[in-house]
Each structure stands twice: as C-alpha cells, then as structure tokens.
Batch of 4 targets.
Target 1
Amino acid sequence: MSADPDCLFCKIVAGDVPADVVHTSERTVAFRDINPQAPLHVLVVPRHHEPNAAATASADPLDLAEIAITARAVAAAEGYDDYRLVFNTGAGAQQTVFHTHCHVIAGRDLTWPPG
C-alpha cells in the first residue's frame, strides 16, 4: 500500500500519530475528528494514500466503496440511522489534509444547503 511519509492521515493509519480510532477494516480506518461539528463527526480514510475521492475512485474503486460501508457501520454503532457523508476536494472546498477522507456527521439538524 502506498503512503506519503509527510501525510498526517498516513501517519494515523500507520499508528505513528495517535487518534481516537472507532473502526478499522482491511481497507479503511475511522477516527473521531479533532474539531467535531456534530455529536458524531468521524473521518473515514482509506489505508492507501490518494489526494482526494476522485483519485481514490480511479486508483481503486473498492476503496471508495469500503469508505461508504465503514461510514454506515460507524453511524450504526453510534446509534444513528440518518447521517451525512462529506468529501471535500481541494483547498477551495476546505480540504486541509490531502489524503482522501470522508466526514461522517450525525446527531444534529443537518440543513441544506450545507454551509
């Protein structure tokens, strides 16, 4: 599996940086966001490094599918049937760590459009 030695999320996946990990699978790691925006705010990252969701889908579509499966498992384990999945792609969309990640958000009113 490829990793970027300078990537924070790669370091979390490798266990070199601590995180509040709530779920792992062969392809993903899920951990609590350090700046939660809702009662449930977990990031799901693939173990394989790609900069964004489109790159992950091109490199290995099964990784992207596993992100959604993991998100569902995390939400269910926390007692939520309704949740939002958010992928930010690029700095202009507020992506700050350039390793594919999905925000799993639940536990409060989620208005539309998101802010």
Target 2
Amino acid sequence: MIALFVAGASLLGMAVFAMLVRNEPEPAYFRVIGVMVVLLGLAGFGLLRLLPNESGAGAGRLVFSLGLLWLAWIFLLAFVVQALRLRFPQSADWLFLSAGLATLAPVTGMVVALWVV
C-alpha cells in the first residue's frame, strides 16, 4: 500500500511540475507562482504548528499539511526553473530534468523514514 502511495505521489508531483513549467516565463506568471509558494507554505506550517493538537485528527492533519508543504516545494522549483529559463534560455533541458527529479526529494525522504522505522 505504501509503495502504491509513493508511486502515485511521485507521478502526481512530476505532472504538477510539468504543468507549471509548460508555458514560457512571464512576469505575471512569476507573481502567481510566488504567491502560491508563500500561501501553500504558510498553510502547511500553520496546520502543523498553530492548530491545537487533537488526538483523533493528528494523523490526517499531518498528512494534509505535509502535502501542502510538498506542493509548495514543487511550486518553488517551478519558480526557480522559470526564472533561470528566462535568464538562460539555452539551459532549459537540464533545468527541467534536474528540477523534475528534485520534486521527488520529499517523497524519497518519506520512503527512507518509513523504511528505517
């Protein structure tokens, strides 16, 4: 079950990243991605730290907040790729590959944490 979740999350993360970097970089697009990074990050940390810890909803809240932080990570990677793509247009291929693989970092960390425990 965990392997299926990890595979699905990995594919979903790469698909979201591909949709975010599909368009050419534009200044208005940077603002939208930047605002989403801040909102998703604040929502994820807010759910983790600011809401009271209830015994029954702890696991669901943790998974949801980690999902929001993971989406913030993907949006941040898309922001950096679009900025570098605007500055260095010839480097688009390796940017897409490296940032696409970097979307797997949180999922890989979760797999390692579950495997060690």
Target 3
Amino acid sequence: MAKDAIETVKEAEEKAKKILQDTILASKNSKQEAEISAEQEHKRILSDAKAEAEDIKRLAVQEGEAIAKPIIEKGIEAAKALNNLKDEDLDSAVNIIIERIVNANGNS
C-alpha cells in the first residue's frame, strides 16, 4: 500500500514535470511567434507608410506642375513676343531709353 502510494506520487511528479516542460516549450514558441508577428507587422506598417508618402509626393508634384504650367506658358508667350519685335520697335525703345538717361544726367 505504501509502495502504491509512492508510485502514484512519483507518477504525479513525472506528469507535473512533463506538464511544466510542455508549458515552458509552449511559452517559448508563443514568444517566438509573437516576435515574428511583430516583425511582420512592423514591416507592413513601414511599407504602408512608404506607399502613402509616395502618394503624397506624387500628388504634390502634380499640384506643383498644375500651378506652374500657366506661369510657364505665360513666360513662353512673353518670350515669343519679345523675340518677334521688329528692329524698328527695338530702335525706338533704345532711343527712348537713351533720351531718358541723357535727360536725367544732363547733356554729357
């Protein structure tokens, strides 16, 4: 009877030891899975943030180009207008400027 009780206690201790080992192993596995999951989530968040930043950048470039386009076109038209001036008009403008300089500084 005492022998049976001792064997029962030993079996219970072995079962408890096995349960403890299994629990420790499960805890380690759970920790590893959590670390892997956290790393994957971290990478996903970074990827999403980069994609969002690229979208914002693309939209900003489009907006800037839309704002700049009429200004550039106006500058091109003004340059064409200056380029198409006749020599007579240029000579007239040069003479007016020379007169203003001479009149401002006196007859030098």
Target 4
Amino acid sequence: MKLLPAALATLLTAFAATTAIAGPTCTAPQEKWMKVPDFKARLEAEGYQIKTFKITPGNCYEIYGFDKAGKKVEIYFDPQTAAVLLAK
C-alpha cells in the first residue's frame, strides 16, 4: 500500500513536468517561415522589446521580453504568419 502514494506522486510529477514544457506545435514547412530578422523587425515595429528569441521544440517562434506597455511577455508565434498562438 505504501507504493501507491509514491507511484502516484511520481506520475503526477512527470505529468506536471511534461505539461509545463509543452507549447503550441507549428506545422508549416520551414521554407515557408518568415525570416527571423524580418520577424524580429516586425515585432519591434509593433513596440515589443525582444530579450530572448528561440524556435521551440514544436517549431514555433517564441519570444521573451516586453510589450509596448513595458509588461513582461512570453509569446509563441506561428513562424509563417507571425500570428500569436499563446501569450503568457
């Protein structure tokens, strides 16, 4: 009986870790993606300050930085259209 709580705790921890790193998935072929310098320039023209840019494991663009109001943001974008997929 003591194994059940430990097994449940392990399962919940694994699920929480997977959920925490999961983000949107983008499926457009890479040759159709917006070029990174063009993407960054577009966001900066909209008032964003990009501190970190990366391509996620799900093949989306992700930025960490600040919006035009100075609020911290973490945003996932479609690399083809630059549409916001998820904002935190």
